[in-house]
Amino acid sequence: MRAVIQRVSEAMVSVAGEVVSSIGPGLMVLVGMEASDDGEDIAWLTRKMVQLRIFNDAQGVMNLPLTEVGGEVMLVSQFTLHASTKKGNRPSYIRAARPETAVPLYESLLVSLEEALGKPVARGIFGADMKVALVNDGPVTIILDSRQREF
């Protein structure tokens, strides 16, 4: 599972010109699933996201996790995070999970995050042509990959 996490002051997702989801300060997370991902990847990614100390404390130092600042989360699926550009100029998405595998993983990650945060998580619409708008706060952007865990 690969995630691009952005600290935002606001974010929203639109489909066919209609806003389907929006958040205030918190994390905008783009996530891509692989066929080999499982519950362990979900648990690891959830833990890392809610514990990342990337929010400013009273002294302006990135020292607080999402749970301490009461931030919101928006989770949007993005299979292109697993693009391989090793050969040629047309990306290959062979590592990205097919929808029949990716949808249950995405839904499980949503549930895991909601349980960890104790509140709903905003979301996009899986497989839809989405327009994502955000204001990256900092900017702060972190990439996590459950296959390349850093402890």
Main attributes of the structure:
151 residues, alpha/beta, D-tyrosyl-trna(Tyr) Deacylase, Chain: A, six-stranded mixed sheet, two-stranded antiparallel ribbon, 3 helices
Describe the structure.
With 151 residues, the chain is α/β, with parallel strands linked by helices. It has a single domain (2-145), classed as 3-Layer(bba) Sandwich (D-tyrosyl-trna(Tyr) Deacylase, Chain: A). Helices cover 24% and strands 37% of the residues. The strands form 2 sheets. Strands 1, 2, 3, 6, 7 and 8 form a 6-stranded mixed beta sheet that branches. The protein has a two-stranded antiparallel sheet with strand order 4-5. Strand 6, helix 3 (99-117) and strand 7 (122-123) form a beta-alpha-beta unit. Helix 1 crosses helix 3 (99-117). The longest helix is centred in the C-terminal third of the chain and has 19 residues, at 99-117. The mean pLDDT is 94.
Give me the secondary-structure topology.
Blueprint: E1 2-15, E2 18-23, E3 26-32, H1 39-51, E4 55-56, E5 62-64, H2 66-69, E6 72-77, H3 99-117, E7 122-123, E8 130-145
Parallel strand pairs: 3-6, 6-7
Antiparallel strand pairs: 1-2, 1-3, 1-8, 4-5
Helix pairs in contact: 1-3
